[in-house]
Specification:
The complex is a heterodimer. Chain A is an all-alpha fold. Helix content of chain A is 76%, strand content 0%. In chain A, helix 11 packs antiparallel against helix 12. The model of chain A has no long low-confidence stretch (mean pLDDT 88). By secondary structure, chain B is mainly alpha-helical. Chain B contains five helices and no strands. The mean pLDDT of chain B is 90. Classes of the chains: A mainly alpha, B mainly alpha.
């Protein structure tokens, strides 16, 4: 077994455990949209997306059109487009197509985070190691949520619901400590996101749409005013 | 008209995969443009920060518990804790604080 693959498994275990907790609450949402445990399992295995799946469940619950499902999935998952663009820069230029197709299966916030944080060019087997642990946890957790979600006390569901945000913090705070521009951006993003959720007009947009608008606007402004040093940029 | 659940699932999967795999397969060269490189460097931090706050205050029973989880999570991550320890400490903070905050 390749060394990188083992390292991927090691780093994938905490991600997988976190996924179990987070996808459990996603399973609760799937159940209220009318999905069976198998269907919830299938959605998670095929999508590996928290916000995107949640948005999809609301479309299913509303019995909305297929076109609406396309648009909703596109918007809720648009940040993966940006992450994949960033990741494309990390591949050695001669990386074969099959590796690009397989890494693309599971570009999530966390897998992206650990993949991009590694020194040097992207090593596909490291990412595969993390995927083989994390992806099944995500799918199984969703199925468990559909099956057992109603059995857990509200307190426990409430506590588990912050697991996802804890993982986000663990990805963004360490670079913020090293790079004051990133630290400033994190604070600005918090404030802008709070403002966008309260102000007239923009607060009426869906959470996914607001995320896209703010991400593009703030990142573009930062890139214009604080071009990253060559070694820092991807 | 009722829609087929498996067609819904198929659409979700196809769109999500396309979003992820098209940039990985179509962009083969290093992007030279400095603005674009910087933009792509900042995107993940901004997007995760935007999604975390204020959503973390709204997902718990009491917003105070969410705020405590945010503070503890940031401190733990600042001090170098990994993904899972940070995540667990946020969950524990919410569980314990809601024992007092919500009766």
């Amino acid at each position: 077994m390749k060394k990188e693959f083992r390292e991927g498994i090691r780093d994938g275990i905490p991600i997988g455990l976190g996924y179990l907790a987070v996808s459990f609450s996603l399973g609760v949402a799937a159940k209220s949209a009318g999905l069976t445990a198998f269907q919830g399992f299938a959605v998670s295995l095929l999508n590996n997306a928290s916000a995107g799946e949640y948005a999809g469940f609301t479309v299913i619950a509303a019995n909305a059109s297929y076109l609406e499902m396309v648009l909703m999935t596109l918007i809720a998952n648009a940040r993966y487009l940006l992450m994949s663009c960033a990741l494309s820069q990390k591949f050695a230029p001669d990386t074969p197509l099959r590796h690009r197709l397989m890494v693309g299966y599971d570009v999530t916030d966390e897998i992206f985070g650990i993949t991009i944080a590694r020194q040097g060019v992207l090593e596909p087997y490291y990412t595969y190691g993390a995927i083989v642990v994390a992806a099944p946890c995500w799918a199984v957790g969703t199925a468990l949520g559909v099956t057992a979600g109603n059995l857990l006390p509200l307190r426990v569901v409430s506590a588990l619901s912050v697991a996802l945000f804890g993982m986000f913090l663990a990805v963004i705070i360490p670079p913020a400590r090293k790079d004051p521009v990133v630290a400033g951006l994190v604070m600005i993003s918090f404030l802008a996101s709070l403002a966008a959720s309260r102000l007239p007009y923009i607060s009426r947009l869906s959470g996914g749409t607001r995320t896209i608008i703010l991400t593009v606007a703030i990142s573009a402004a930062a890139a214009a005013f604080f071009p990253a040093r060559e070694e820092a940029a991807v | 008209m009722t829609h087929n659940i498996y067609i819904y699932i198929g659409i979700m999967a196809a769109v999500t995969y396309a979003i992820r795999v098209l940039p990985l397969t179509l962009i083969r060269k290093q992007i030279r443009n400095r603005f674009l490189r910087s933009f792509l460097y900042y995107v993940p931090y901004v997007t995760l920060a935007v999604m975390t706050f204020p959503a973390i205050l709204e997902c718990t029973q009491s917003p105070v518990a969410g705020a405590l989880a945010l503070a503890v999570g940031m401190i733990a991550a600042w001090r170098g804790a990994g993904l899972f320890p940070v995540s667990v400490s946020c969950c524990v903070v919410v569980f314990l604080s809601e024992l007092f905050l919500c009766r």
